[in-house]
Specification:
Helix content is 37%, strand content 23%. It has a seven-stranded mixed beta sheet, with helices on both faces. Strands 8-2-1-12-19-18 form a six-stranded mixed beta sheet.
Length: 418
């Protein structure tokens, strides 16, 4: 704690107080869960505003069920584009797998829904009390706390004491570094990723993901008439296109099937985001220390190859709120949170890494074998490919100490939404 500053303490009789560092999807979801279960919550975000990020997010049934616990699942599904037909294609456009929503609904009780990240963030913010979010605040952990000592977060305005601190500050998490200073940092996964949102083409198209040489391309519709697209490529870390990312992207995917080149051409240069993909190859021993917990990329950064980064952050948030219910033993609750989440997310991180290796093959013979095997499996039994995702998407939230269907939660939600 900075000398001469005193941590702000809650007044006598107030509800337990939690501070969330980071206003991403995981941090906001955690704040909602804690708020509904009886915590006072403050979310501290270093950015001055929550600017919309030009990217989409797919929410599988596991994340939708978690949002159902918070009373937000139906609203998400109303705002999202449902993934119907589509499937997986080869670089020349040949369909390797044709899929539909029926199979996913049968396997998991519903299909993937796609929406813009900014749409989801706006919905989450609307579910919080008006004074819960503070932007333009750089916050760092000063003391992780203990059973008999509250945690402390330091800001330029002074230090804040809290009964619980949640590090939701992303892949470069300062909270993770403070809790586990000797732990290896996220490593480069061997490929970079581009993301863009552009107007939909004039003619109808089905959502698809294409597995090509050394990378993938995906195109998915959004409900507002735009499409979300992404591409990845096996390249050295830290690279940038000398003549701009749009030009570099156009060159890299010039010989990929239609309409990929047209989608790239339709983008404005400022619409294209590029980020090297990094992941935590060595799992953390726990997702908490003292009174401080980690969620999302701060805890288990993974490659995007299963589309589960945001989904797992939402799961984390709901499970943490469940185990940190007011009135219980917080130390035991955080230990239970780690015990549940570390094995599940570690397995998904590893599965995503294996998928990344499969989708980023560069040798023509191996690519031919891969495509043949994928197509053969799809012909033998279309459900077999879906079942490979079953251990992820069939997840169910723990029985919560709060529920969106309770009278108290409904009343709080109506107040917040006014």
């Amino acid at each position: 704690m900075a000398q001469g500053q005193r941590a702000r303490r809650p007044q006598q009789g107030e509800r337990p107080y939690a501070v969330v560092i980071g206003a991403g999807i995981g941090g906001l979801t955690a704040a909602i869960g804690l708020h509904l279960s009886g915590w006072r919550v403050t979310v501290l975000e270093r950015a001055a505003t929550l600017e919309p990020v030009g990217a989409g997010i797919g929410l599988a049934r596991n994340a939708q069920r978690a949002l159902d616990v918070l009373g937000l699942g139906e609203r998400v599904r109303e705002l999202a584009a449902w993934e119907g037909g589509g499937g997986m294609r080869a670089q020349n456009g040949r369909w390797l797998v044709r899929a539909g929503a029926t199979g996913a609904s049968r396997e998991f009780g519903g299909s993937l829904v796609m929406l813009h990240r900014a749409t989801l963030v706006d919905l989450l913010v609307s579910a919080l009390p008006a004074d819960a979010l503070r932007t333009g605040v750089r916050a760092e952990p000063a003391d992780s706390g203990a059973a008999d000592r509250r945690a402390v977060v330091t800001t330029r305005e002074g230090d804040i004491e809290a009964d619980l601190v949640i590090g939701a500050d992303g892949i470069n998490s300062a909270v993770r570094s403070a809790l586990f200073p000797a732990h290896p940092q996220p490593a480069y996964a061997g490929f970079t990723a581009w993301r863009l949102v552009v107007p939909a083409p004039d003619r109808p198209f089905e959502p698809y993901e294409t597995w090509g040489r050394g990378g993938v391309w995906g195109t998915h519709p959004l409900k507002d008439g735009r499409i979300y697209a992404y591409g990845t490529a096996t390249v050295p870390e830290g690279g940038r296109s000398p003549d701009g990312e749009q030009a570099g992207l156009a060159r890299r995917f010039a010989d990929w099937h239609d309409p990929i080149p047209a989608i790239i051409d339709a983008a404005r240069p400022e619409d294209i985001l590029r980020n090297d993909v990094r992941h935590l190859t060595t799992p953390l021993p726990a997702y908490h220390r003292g009174r401080t917990a980690l969620i999302g990329d701060a805890a288990h950064a993974m490659t995007p190859c299963l589309g589960q980064g945001g989904n797992q952050a939402i799961e984390d948030a709901v499970v943490l709120a469940h185990h940190a219910a007011p009135g219980g033993d917080l130390s035991a609750g955080l230990a239970a949170y780690s015990a549940v989440r570390v094995p599940r997310t570690t397995a998904i991180v590893r599965q995503a890494a294996r998928t990344a290796r499969l989708t980023h093959l560069t040798g023509a013979p191996l690519i031919a074998v891969r495509n043949t095997l994928v197509g053969a499996v799809a012909r033998i039994g279309p459900g077999l490919i879906l079942r490979g995702f079953a251990s992820i998407a069939d997840w169910r939230p723990p029985q919560p100490p709060y529920a969106a269907g309770t009278e108290r939660a409904q009343q709080e939600q109506r107040v917040v939404q006014r």
